[in-house]
Amino acid sequence: IDSSFVMMKFGALVERQKISLWGKNLGDEDLDVVIKVLEESKVLEVIDFGSNKITLTNDKFVNALAHNRTVRGILFDGNKIGAEGVQRLASILKSNHTILKLSLSNNQILAEGARHLASALVTNRSLQFIDLRNANIGDEGAAYLATSLKGNNNIRGLRLGGNNISDKGAEKLVDVLESNPVLGGFVLDDNPISDLLKKRYEDVRSKGEDLRSKREVDALKMTIAEKDALIAARDEEMVRMKAEMARIIGQIDSLKSNFESLALGNSSSGGKVGFA
Question: Looking at CB atoms within 10 Å, which of 56, 96, 139, 271 has the fewest?
């Protein structure tokens, strides 16, 4: 374990929004301080565990992460996380809906790990960016992810480079991207994919980007239209209120005139009332 991490104190970490523990040679048994920070921090948003020896088999750490509601991004690039670790992580994602970015690149999660992650994506509606580069998920893992993303409208980026995905797995991903254009593009570089499928993927991704841009413009137009309608309604209400105020003032003036006439009549008769 890196001696600089040993010197870190809880008080020095608990107030940070971002914590980088990259390359500290940390194992699951070295996370006591991090666990306490996860449990008590009110401001932590990003934590980088890159290039360590973490396997996600520390129950206390997994539990602390599951109950944390401030962390938005968590990076485990280049650790020793396998399918079992991803299974624990997937259980977190099924209940934690604050994590937006998850990075597991350069971990051997294999197809089984992709299956566990895919199961979480069926119900998780917060995760937007996932990095699974060089995770060795293959065509089988790609198929698991494609199935889980059919009804997911939240993913904006899924990096799958260097996963030995052939046309068999890539085609399933392109199919789901074509059927669900709300999804962001998948990055499939450094995979043995044919030029023909690459072209189809680029066409589908381009159409999806155009559609998302159009929807964003439409949403903006709708927002502007709603604001204009609200302003018009307020103006109409102001006109109505002014008319009502004028009516009330008119009634007050009429009552005042009647009262003055009555007072003048009483004055001219000397204030006496005669009887026939």
Answer: 271
